[in-house]
Amino acid sequence: MTHSAPSPEPFSILAMPRTGTHYLEALLNEHPNVLSNGELLNTYDTNWPDKDRLLRSDRELLELAYLRYPRRSDKKVTQVGCKINEPQFHKRPGFFDELARWPGLKVILMTRRNTLESLRSLVQARQSGEWLKFGSNNDAAPPPRVKLSIASCEAYFKTADDFHTRVTRSFASTNMLVIEYESLLHESTTLLATIWDFLGVAALQLSGRVILQRQETRPLDQTVQNFHELRLHFRDGPYARFFEVGDV
Length: 248
Hints:
Elements: E1 9-15, H1 21-28, E2 34-39, H2 58-66, E3 79-85, H3 95-100, E4 106-111, H4 115-128, H5 150-170, E5 176-180, H6 181-186, H7 188-199, H8 220-223, H9 227-234
């Protein structure tokens, strides 16, 4: 009598846009036992050959992600995951609750210390159409400078706060790990050891093949055209810390 191998343990990467999830996922996929299949709710994600999958129910989509995921011949997968950005939940209002009910799900919540960095990067990507940087072409033109309205900043900051709160309240602390983009950038070895332990896989020293390609390295006050106007507006509120850069 033969016994089928147990299903891999499920995980999900949840985040606001432009928080380094692509880099995190590339690092995770260096592990021979970990497979993260990109953005489950993104029609154009090349990890998913089934382009009609979004016509399925929320439950069927999660079964696709965790039980019938695309196989990789070079991996013995014991942990399987995907990533979902906050705006993608809006088009499927019941999906978050369905995800929270998935048995044994572990969640990696990725954040940025400065939510304004995330918003600036999102607007830049929308304006330029460049969402990822490939290679190390330092001669490429920098992303466009952007102008942000007070209303869009307030809405985005509140959305991020609400989303982070919803995630932390919806999953048991033992099944959730909160990581910062900045820590992944500057303390990757230490942070990855924590992530491997959280997922329940053997520690792995990475090859160094995966290198973060940052599209924007200039500070906020050089990339947001109306930075000083925004800083003046938010100076006495809960988001004043996002504007603590540049000349005072």
